[in-house]
Amino acid sequence: MCGRFTLTRRRLSGLAAELGAEVTGADAIAYRPRYNIAPTDQHWIARQKLEQRQLMPAKWGLVNSWAKDAKGAARQINARAETAINSPAFRESFLERRCVVPADGFYEWLGAKEARRPVWYHPQDEGLFLFAGLYESWLDPATTTWLRTFTIITTAANETVAPVHDRMPVILPPDHVDEWLFVPPQNKQSHAEKLLPLLAPAAPGVLVATEVSRRANSVANDDPACLAPASDNDAAPEQAPRLF
Length: 244
What we know:
- The protein has helices at 12-19, 25-28, 91-96, 177-181, 188-194, and strands at residues 5-7, 21-22, 34-37, 42-49, 52-60, 78-80, 98-103, 105-110, 117-123, 129-140, 145-156, 167-169, 207-211.
- It is mostly beta strands.
- It has one domain (5-227): Alpha-Beta Complex (hypothetical protein yedk fold).
- The strands form 2 sheets. Strands 2, 4, 5, 6, 7, 10, 11 and 12 form an 8-stranded mixed beta sheet that branches.
- The two termini are 25 Å apart.
């Protein structure tokens, strides 16, 4: 699965340039580097709209357009690659609303719950991961406001992640991102089926595993110290105020 991840780029303009995407000034005001992104947090997705990629905020945890409320968001932070295209919860989004979720790492944990040790999986070259995602827009009947949400597709772990967890986020190869984002006006089902081979474990050498500070164990901590190298006496820290 993908339960927490990071995006530590300092500036949204730089991130948008890396993605070749447009972003509005109003959205840019909300951006900040993130070191411990948790389910139901606000994050960023990129989608294709006509000929242009758009970078926009969205909440992690997909809420279906037909849902009566948003309570199920935390249960839909991930969609399994093996079943998403046929799942009632994700089928429509898979056909029509695919996106990429930019990140520069994700966490998994070693050890018992009371003494677990975070492992940060990140690119070899300090680049970006582009997770395969699906997004949806939901109209809150109580407030009549629209909420944009997303889920991250997961697949079987590769050889780097497998010693710690049996699942990992799908990391799209850069040369297949346009194919993933494109939604044809017709034959959407057949195009989506052709994308299924992309939902595979990352190739060897794509990921580096680094044990980091137990500060990352708590979602209350969201600062650069979360990524400090682990040490033998890395004690569980006091919780810091969450930066919102």
